[in-house]
Every structure is written in structure tokens, then in C-alpha cells.
Design brief:
62% helix; mainly alpha; globular; 314 residues
């Protein structure tokens, strides 16, 4: 990874071998699904294309690694610490409780849903994952390869940190408390919670199918849904006010949707934002990601010298 003097650019491992090992391992341990074929075919196709396509595969590789790590998380479930149910709920109620008697917003909202909010929040909850991938592709086309690199590695970092937290400090989501109370009742199937209203409105069954495959029921804190838009906000910060305003607005929308749909407390959203900020700063420090005000095509400036870093041009 070359974004400054003395920093080397990573080389993508032999992709055919990586893809073959991943598919074989997945088939032997959990069975192959459509997304396994699609993701590996895309990576392999970019790599085989050579030139700019292979460079894109190199820059996007951390996204592929994130998907593999997340998929394998289910095998770490036996190592999970005791699930926290009452503690986070009581903190949320003390800090952000609404009404009399006080109730947490994520549960209070379920008593008074609005179809318009169901639709908007459901769409935001779908787009949260597409946003970093689409943004990375756009930035690549525009020549902001350093920003793609920063976003991709920050994405991997925030997911690893979040999943480790989910193991060491697993937190039950608000929908769990609403359904089962403040005591841990054992493993339960994942639920779409308030997002089921989006499925009913649109007749799609999107969230029911999505959460049926989720390996991480007790991963409320931090909210990775809330973290991803903040990564995108950070990666585009120096591109102008429209990017900053739009990015901040979408981050707020996804954070509000996470609470409104009953999947996260406000404290989970705040933690997700904090994790994203730390991931961006940490990756920037490790790879010398440049100052926010770099010019297009030169996100790789050596901030101390005020000039483009070597090797950043495509």
C-alpha cells in the first residue's frame, strides 16, 4: 500500500487460489449460497481482466475479506461471553428514556409506527451496505484511488473491531428485550423486528430473508449499520460541502433507522459512529492516508510536505 514515502503497496494474493480455497472451505463447513458464487466470481473476473480491473480488485480486496470474516463469525459463537440484556437497556433508559414511565426510544417507537417512516427507514437500512461499495467504485472511476484504499481498509478494520466486541461484550437488541424481557433466555432465531413492516409494505420479504442468514443476533453494540455511513463520510470529507452535508445526513438517517426499526439502542449508534471514527484515524495513521483536502487523483498527499505521495497516480 503506497500512500506516502516509506510505505509499501500490498500485492493481492493469487486470486484463483484464494477463491478456490474459500469456496472449498465454505462448501465443507456451511454450504455454498448464491452470494458466495457472486462475490468470488466478481473478484476473480476483476483480477482476470488485468490492468485497471486488476487494480480495482486489489483496492477492493478488503471488502471481500470482510465478507469472509463475517460469514465465518458463526464458528466463533461458542467463544462468546455472557449476553448482556438488562444492563444496556437500563443505561439507554436512563440516558435517553422517553415518556412516563420512561421507555427506550427503540421500543417506544414500535408502539406508534408510521408507514412513511417504515418505507424511508427500510430503504436506508438496505442502502447502508451498498453505500460503501458503490462509493468505492465511484471514487475509483474518478481517480481517487487513495480514498478507495482508505475506505476499504477502514471498512475491514471497523468490522473486525465490531465483531470482536460482539464476542467479548454481546448485547441483546431492543427487539429481544421487547419480546423476551430483561433476562437472557438462550439462543433465539434472528428477527427482522420493525423492518418486517417494510417487507409488508413492499411485499418483498427482503429483511426476513436477510436476517434469517444472520450469524450475529447479539451484536447490537456497536451498530455496524451506523458505522458504515460514517466511514463514507470520512473518506469523502475533502471533496466538497455537498459530500459532507449529504454524507452526514445519510449517517443520521441510518442511525435513526437503526433505532426506529428496533434493532439498536441510541448508545449502539453512538458507539458505531465512534468505532468508525477510530477506524478511519487508525488506518490513516498506519498507511499515511493523506489530509482531507487532497486534490482529485492525489489522495495520498504527504500532509507534511503538501505534495502528492509517490505511486498514487493510477
Amino acid at each position: 500500500m503506497h500512500v506516502g514515502r516509506g510505505v509499501t503497496r500490498p500485492h493481492l494474493p493469487p486470486v484463483p487460489a484464494v477463491v478456490a480455497i474459500h469456496l472449498a472451505g465454505t462448501a465443507a463447513t456451511m454450504g455454498l449460497r448464491v452470494e458466495h458464487f457472486a462475490g468470488n466470481a466478481l473478484l476473480l473476473g476483476l483480477w482476470a481482466g488485468g490492468g485497471r480491473a486488476r487494480r480495482l480488485a486489489t483496492l477492493m480486496f478488503p471488502f471481500w475479506v470482510t465478507a469472509v470474516v463475517y460469514d465465518a463469525f458463526r464458528f466463533l459463537e461458542p467463544l462468546r461471553a455472557p449476553v448482556r440484556v438488562a444492563g444496556p437497556y437500563l443505561v439507554e433508559r436512563a440516558w435517553f428514556g422517553v415518556g412516563t414511565p420512561a421507555e427506550v426510544p427503540a421500543i417506544a417507537w414500535q408502539a406508534a409506527p408510521a408507514p412513511g417512516l417504515d418505507l424511508v427507514c427500510g430503504l436506508a437500512y438496505i442502502l447502508y451496505l451498498l453505500q460503501p461499495l458503490a462509493l468505492a467504485a465511484y471514487l475509483f472511476v474518478r481517480g481517487h484511488h487513495g480514498r478507495v484504499r482508505w475506505l476499504a481498509w477502514s471498512f475491514l478494520a471497523v468490522n473486525v473491531a465490531g465483531l470482536v466486541t460482539h464476542l467479548l461484550y454481546p448485547v441483546a437488541p431492543p427487539w429481544y428485550v421487547a419480546r423476551y424481557g430483561l433476562e437472557y433466555v438462550g439462543p433465539v432465531p434472528p428477527e427482522a423486528a420493525g423492518a418486517a413492516r417494510f417487507d409488508a409494505l413492499t411485499g418483498t420479504g427482503w429483511f426476513a430473508a436477510w436476517y434469517a442468514r444472520s450469524p450475529d443476533v447479539f451484536g447490537a453494540l456497536p451498530s455496524l449499520h451506523a458505522a458504515y455511513p460514517v466511514l463514507c463520510l470520512g473518506a469523502t470529507w475533502g471533496l466538497g460541502a455537498r459530500w459532507r452535508v449529504g454524507g452526514a445526513a445519510f449517517a443520521l438517517l441510518v442511525g435513526a433507522a437503526a433505532v426506529y426499526l428496533g434493532h439498536h439502542y441510541v448508545i449502539d449508534v453512538l458507539a458505531g459512529w465512534a468505532y468508525a471514527a477510530v477506524a478511519l484515524a487508525g488506518v490513516a495513521a498506519l498507511v499515511r492516508a493523506p489530509a482531507f483536502h487532497a486534490r482529485p487523483g492525489h489522495f495520498g498527499e504527504d500532509a507534511a510536505r503538501g505534495r502528492p505521495a509517490e505511486g498514487e497516480s493510477a
